[in-house]
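Working notes for the structural subgroup meeting. M.R. asked for a predicted model of this chain before we commit to crystallization trials. I am recording the input and output together here so anyone reviewing the notebook later can reproduce the run.

Input as submitted:
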Amino acid sequence: MKHKCPICSKVFDTLDSFDTHIENHKNESILNETPRDNSIDYPIHNEIHHVNHEKFFDEEKFQELVDKKINSIENLDELIYRQNFVTILTDVYRKNPFCYLPYFIQFFMNGITVQQMISKFHFSNNVSYYDIVKKILDLKQKRFENQYCSNALELNLKIPNWSKIFESITDNSKFFEDELNELYFNSVIQARIFLFLTLHHEYISKNELITFCNIEKENLKSFSFIDESLEKKFQKYFEDGFEKKIDDILSDFIFKRFVTKIGINEKKFKGTLSINDIKSTIQQKLKIHDSKLSFGRLKTLVSEKHPGLNLIPGLEIFGIALDEMKRENIVNLEVKSNWKNDYYVFLNEEFQKISSEIKSLDSKNIPFKGRKINPDQFISELLELEKGDFDDGDDQVTRMAGLVLAESVKLQSPHEEILDFDFTVDLQNYAFRPEQIEAIGKLDFRPHDGREFGILHVKV
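Returned structure, recorded in token form:
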């Protein structure tokens, strides 16, 4: 985990170097200095402003909310402890404004699957999820998942340093509970306003927006990270200075050029982004990149042109645009894996060209280049091949084994050590090919499809 000095903002990779640096500060008697400079001079709203994508989410937002508590801390060690959490939370929030950290760390340690985590916290893809887990929270080891272990929490907390990270986040989340809830409440409301203005093409008054948001307070659970407890805690923010929160959000949107406004006595607002804008940019980016891009890469390119999309990760407005383009026969999608949003997007003419080329290939006319070989001979030849490390690009054994095991069945590495077996294979819902059924037919069991089987233990 990175350690950031709350006084001079210098970052250290190890705790020892960080502690030495802090001792130097103590010796210089700078305890009474402000740990972080929160002053920021915004230009006037009508000044042309180009959005800096690296600073898209205001990193001072949470700092401003916690300043009162931070400045009341007299003990330097506690100050450092609390400020480190503020830095971590800020980094997480910039990656995903819906990654509610107290719940995220709880679900993570309890072994909830990656796909469920991505869905619950509205990640647009697995890359941003792993950025938070591995780079920001420093949880790099492989964890236990509850679909395989009933005591996943207990096992995960035994992984070196994970218990300390879990306890620190849990403790700080309680200490800053009100500030955390206000930060994420603002994220939810600004996302709703942005979506509302994007999907409506006319100017909307502030009173109409307030009415819309008040209706939305009955629909907060559409954000899947919000449970009943958090929903109740959020309700008070609809009462305490809610109109000012709307004013602040609209002012920020104008500053970032997400909305335009008209009127003097009764101001009205209109989003600068529409579904048609997104569709046009998608088509433009595909044409530039040979008519084919992965979903993640395409969304990144579109978000660079329309940075407001970063306000609503995982809320599917980008998917709505793609669905419309698919119905209009402009694009086609090709799934790469079972991961969320892991597919290629083609311009339709390119997709049809590739499809016709594939259909033109008659598999019967392609000669089989392999040779008949029994299992014992195959293993013997594998042993004779040159062996290298797994990171070695020339490791023939690794490549050969990868080809042999390149099936849609799920290989599992059991958490418990079973000396009699090398690995396990999950054959649930696996559809056997005809040649596989023919080969298995010579054995002692007769599967018709994967539904008859669960986990098979394998010895090589």
